[in-house]
Amino acid sequence: MTGWYHVCFTVPVLEAAMADLTAAAGVRWSEPAAGRIGEWDYRIVFTAGDAPHIELIEAPSGGPWGDTSTAGFHHLGFWSSDVTAGASRLTAAGFPEAFSGCPYGRAFVYHRMDSLGAQIELVDAARQSDFLAAWNPGGAAMPVISES
Length: 148
Known about the structure:
This protein has 148 residues and is an alpha/beta fold. It has helices at 14-25, 83-92, 128-135; strands at 6-10, 33-37, 40-46, 53-58, 72-80, 97-100, 108-113, 118-124, 144-145. The protein has a single domain (6-145), classed as 2,3-Dihydroxybiphenyl 1,2-Dioxygenase, domain 1 (Roll). The N and C termini lie close together (12 Å).
């Protein structure tokens, strides 16, 4: 196993959560971005600088992020050398799949980890350079779970 690269919280109001974390801990933010996966619109932001990152997602309830009407811890994110193999590994270990972005052309998957009351996200390591370009230009490469 290797180090996680982000922790994610779902929040009802992105700007309020950003302001609170900045006031409490001096956190700096990248610019928020809007997106859509399947039928679900969302807004997302990551902390500026190197990993580990804090990710905030604002989205309506009922989509991939569940009940987003109140703020909460959603997942720990890890890079994976092979999301399909990693998803199979997690399922076999007793962590059921909660949502896959793969059918939507997005190489990530969430698996439930009930002992944490949260999920584990595997993201295809092939997307790491795009992540760095968008959220941490010039940032260092992050560790990847080898699924071989």
